[in-house]
Amino acid sequence: MTATPDGAILQRDKETYAIVPRTPAGLMTPDQLDAISRVARKYSIPILKITSGQRFALVGMKAEDVEPIWDELSMDIGRATELCVHYVQACPGNSVCKLGVDDSLGLGLEIEKMFQEEPFPAKVKFGVSGCPLCCAESLVRDIGLIATKKGWTVAVGGNSGSKPRVADVIATELSKDETLDLIRRFAEYYRGNSGKRLRVSKFVEKVGIDEIKAALNL
Q1: DSSP single-letter state for residue 3
Q2: Residue 19 in 3-state DSSP?
Q3: What is the pTM of this model?
């Protein structure tokens, strides 16, 4: 059996592959958009799809084309099947939105950098919302952050899959530094106490939110 190329996902036809370039907090540059357009035409990639995680999926390429496509894109791999942080979904926040009360894009980028390529028991998804309207779906993400006028709210254990679960709030009115420290401590606690492929939502249900808060000194 031919090994799957790094950063590629075998498709339903068992012959073609998809790749997902890493787009931190859903941000892209004009050069990256040009590169995607260029390789799509050059290699006749039939499907370009914006995913639910604010990323681009390039679908339908041949195995031998995967490596040269990555070389020509010059973008990091956005892991889509591995046990790690898959993405940080972030709204525009106060960078441009008139309703934004804090910098969700900036915080999202810091979280991407903090956890890039770190292993986890299961895939992990973040949602970072720049106001209480929660446009980044923070309460149905593994780890969700919501900005208020008094600081950041942190919630854990959300899931938007076949068995939706609203996340449990574990702290409110935090500064950015306090928020980053808390999610780092929660990530380490989750990594050290969860079973393989046990999503955060199932982990929270198994352990109990009160025990988690006690372990984090909350």
Answers
A1: P
A2: strand
A3: 0.93
